[in-house]
């Protein structure tokens, strides 16, 4: 049995809301995770959301759509969404959706990854 | 290639109103590969596809999915199997009372608890993948045949299927759109690791995308193998198909004459 | 001789198989009520289609039927000098017989044919196959909302038809032929009892099931038996559906009447 994402354990520090996700981020789990992320994106104190994907087993299109919604909520107020620890497959999916331009994707070391178009 | 077989067709026979249309079909469909089933029209490839997606009843022990018998699936197991599938039908099969976006949203609304906004973005992502981002609000009747087919593929991909079945992707499309569709099919395999089964009679497209080719003729498998193996085949019928020669020697003179004379003759085996 | 028996037997088996399939279709259609997906909005949409759009045509039919009943009733009753019974005559024939039957026939012609064609087109265009491949139950998703909408619409349309018809009869009987308004209306009030209304409503519910069942079934299996999914199959299915529904409605009317009377 895969561990379900328990998004309650996000933490807010100096305007940065960091949240590690685990298990699948897919159609079955997205409705719950979405609530937490959109809730955080709405808060005025939150300037940036950092999502750690290193323990995520699967990301599907519904997860990407959720990230778009989160990003939109933040971008309206000039906030940023940073993703880290994405697997190769997850990165490919975001690329396939042509959304790699709008998220800030960091690898483990924290450096920005550049993609060719 | 080191891939396991996701679907194993082991001795499939099929009948259509008393007439046998498939004869002891045997092949495997390896996962994360593109398998192309090709042959002239009427060779039974669409029937084979209908068996694989469970639209035509299969007898036990003829098709195995992940080692389980498709012919013995109950309603629940069939539903679970089908949730792993995406199917693009020949006509696109879009629901014509809904817009393109609503069409894509149908499986998501029925099967998930996702919010409308998430579903809207997902539909948009899929439409953009097929170059239809501006056409979400169009009704299917307002689209050209090729666009309908691409919209149908967007809907087939809505649930991020693990296995994708495509019936005649490029028939009725202009060469440029057809090539674009082929490239997308390759991209889906490479980026998402999808297992893809394509049924087609278009040679160029088949050789462009296939990891594995199955050539069918009159309800039997004529040849199976990698594109190079098929090209090197010495089988007469395969060569005829590859070189697109018309059928000439296949007229049953005796039967023809006896029909002209008005005699009933029993239908020959095939 | 053996050949005759053989073909007779084959035809019988064929018909039995069809009946079995039709019965199963009804079972799936009813089972769809409790199965997902939720169908509130699709039922509303179907009510709009079956009910609202049949409103005008049924009003028209009912008005003229009521008027002709007034006319015929008046001349028949006047032979016995009992013109005062016109109100009861018109009301009873409408509420017990004509209301449910006419509404059902008009809805069949107006909406049943369209439903059959809609589903038939979905069949020949592989849309029903597509639904199945999305693991969506086509009965629950497509057919059941129409059944529920029919069950809501037909009794309402029947009641509406009764009312319009009675006023049509009033128009002719009272305003044209000079029956006293009080006699007409009290005739309606005194002769119609709960059992008459009940009978009309039972009929309209039964006709709704019958009509939706036959029209959706014919569309659902358009071209399936011939293995030919050409557009002409939809036309044929629609004609068959309308004829069969109309005949069944009339036959069922007799059966229900003989049971309930």
Structure commentary:
Chain A is of the alpha/beta class. Chain A has a single domain (12-106), classed as STAS domain (Transcription Regulator spoIIAA). Chain A has 3 helices and 5 strands; from the N terminus they run ββαβαβαβ. Chain A has a 5-stranded mixed beta sheet with strand order 1-2-3-4-5. In chain A, strand 1 and strand 2 form a beta hairpin. By secondary structure, chain B is an alpha/beta fold. In chain B, strand 1 (5-16) and strand 2 (19-30) form a beta hairpin. The model of chain B has no long low-confidence stretch (mean pLDDT 87). In chain C, helix 1 (2-31) packs across helix 6 and helix 4 crosses helix 7 (181-191). Chain C has one domain. The mean pLDDT of chain C is 92. Helices cover 84% and strands 0% of the residues of chain C. By secondary structure, chain C is an all-alpha fold. The A-B interface holds A 26-28, 30-31, 34, 60-62, 64-66, 68-69, 89, 92-93, 95-99 and B 108, 111-115, 117-119, 121-122, 125-126, 128-129, 159-160, 187, 191-193.
Query: What proportion strand of chain A?
Result: 25-35%
- General shape of chain A: globular
Our Rg estimate of chain A from Cα atoms comes to 13 Å
Please summarize the sheet with the most strands of chain A. Answer: 5 strands, mixed
Protein structure class of chain B: alpha/beta
Q: Strand order, biggest sheet of chain A?
A: 1-2-3-4-5
Q: Tell me the distance between the termini of chain A.
A: 38 Å
Taking pLDDT < 50 over at least 5 consecutive residues as the criterion, the unreliable ranges of chain A are: 1-6, 109-117
Rg of chain B, please? 20 Å
Shape of chain B: globular
The number of distinct helices of chain A, counting runs of at least 4 residues, comes to 3
CATH fold group of chain A? Transcription Regulator spoIIAA
CATH superfamily of chain A: STAS domain
**Whole-Å distance between the termini of chain B?**
35 Å
Strand order of the largest sheet of chain B: 6-7-8-3-9-10
- Which stretches of chain B of 5+ consecutive residues score pLDDT under 50? none
Oligomer: heterotrimer
Number of helices of chain B: 10
Counting helices, strands and paired strands, the structural category of chain A is alpha/beta
């Amino acid at each position: 049995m895969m561990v379900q994402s328990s998004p309650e354990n996000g933490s807010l520090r100096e305007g940065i809301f960091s949240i590690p996700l685990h298990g699948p981020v897919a159609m079955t789990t997205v409705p719950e995770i979405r609530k937490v992320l959109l809730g955080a994106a709405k808060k005025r104190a939150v300037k940036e959301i950092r999502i750690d994907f290193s323990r995520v087993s699967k990301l599907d299109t519904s997860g990407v759509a959720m990230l778009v919604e989160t990003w939109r909520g933040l971008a309206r107020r000039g906030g940023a969404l940073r993703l880290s620890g994405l697997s190769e497959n997850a990165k490919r999916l975001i690329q396939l959706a042509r959304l790699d331009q709008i998220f800030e994707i960091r690898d483990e070391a924290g450096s920005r990854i550049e993609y060719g178009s | 290639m080191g891939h396991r077989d996701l679907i194993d067709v082991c001795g499939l026979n099929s009948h259509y109103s008393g007439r046998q249309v498939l004869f002891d079909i045997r092949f495997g469909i390896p996962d994360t590969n593109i398998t192309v089933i090709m042959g002239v029209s009427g060779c039974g490839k669409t029937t084979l596809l209908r068996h694989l997606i469970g639209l035509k009843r299969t007898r036990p022990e003829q098709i195995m999915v992940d080692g389980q018998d498709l012919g013995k699936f109950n309603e629940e197991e069939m539903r679970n199997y089908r949730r792993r599938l995406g199917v693009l039908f020949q006509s696109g099969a879009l629901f014509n009372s809904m817009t393109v976006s609503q069409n894509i949203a149908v499986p998501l609304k029925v099967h998930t608890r996702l919010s409308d906004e998430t579903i809207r973005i997902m539909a948009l992502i899929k439409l953009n993948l097929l170059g239809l981002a501006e056409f979400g609000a169009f009704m299917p009747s307002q689209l050209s045949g090729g666009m309908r087919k691409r919209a149908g593929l967007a809907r087939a991909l809505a649930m991020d299927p693990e296995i994708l079945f495509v019936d005649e992707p490029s028939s009725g499309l202009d060469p440029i759109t057809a090539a674009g569709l082929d490239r997308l099919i390759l991209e889906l395999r490479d980026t998402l690791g999808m297992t893809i089964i394509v049924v087609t009679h278009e040679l160029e497209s088949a050789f462009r995308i296939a990891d594995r080719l199955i050539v069918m003729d009159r309800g039997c498998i004529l040849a199976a193998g990698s594109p190079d193996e098929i090209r090197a085949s010495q089988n007469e019928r395969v060569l005829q198909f590859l070189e697109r020669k018309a059928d000439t020697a296949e007229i049953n003179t005796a039967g023809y004459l006896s029909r002209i004379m008005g005699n009933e003759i029993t239908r020959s085996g095939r | 001789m053996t050949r005759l028996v053989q073909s007779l037997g084959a035809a019988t088996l064929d018909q039995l198989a069809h009946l079995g399939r039709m019965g199963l279709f009804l079972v799936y259609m009813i089972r769809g009520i409790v199965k997902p997906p939720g169908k509130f909005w699709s039922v509303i949409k179907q009510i709009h289609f079956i009910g609202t759009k049949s409103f005008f045509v049924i009003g028209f039919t009912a008005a003229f039927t009521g008027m002709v009943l007034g006319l015929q009733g008046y001349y028949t009753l006047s032979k016995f000098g009992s013109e005062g019974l016109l109100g009861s005559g018109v009301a009873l024939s409408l509420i017990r017989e004509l209301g449910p039957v006419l509404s059902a026939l008009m809805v069949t012609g107006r909406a049943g044919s369209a439903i059959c064609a809609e589903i038939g087109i979905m069949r020949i265009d592989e849309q029903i196959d597509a639904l199945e491949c999305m693991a969506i139950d086509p009965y629950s998703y497509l057919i059941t909302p129409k059944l529920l909408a029919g069950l809501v619409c037909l009794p309402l349309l029947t009641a509406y038809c009764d009312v319009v018809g009675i006023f049509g009869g009033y128009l002719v009987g009272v305003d044209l032929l000079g029956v006293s308004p009080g006699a007409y209306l009290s005739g309606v009030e005194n002769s119609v009892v709960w059992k008459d209304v009940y009978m009309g409503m039972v009929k309209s519910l039964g006709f709704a099931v019958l009509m939706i069942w036959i029209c959706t079934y014919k569309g659902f299996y358009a071209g399936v038996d011939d293995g030919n999914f050409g557009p002409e199959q939809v036309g044929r299915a629609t004609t068959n559906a309308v004829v069969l529904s109309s005949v069944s409605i009339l036959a069922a009317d007799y059966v229900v009447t003989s049971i309930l009377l």
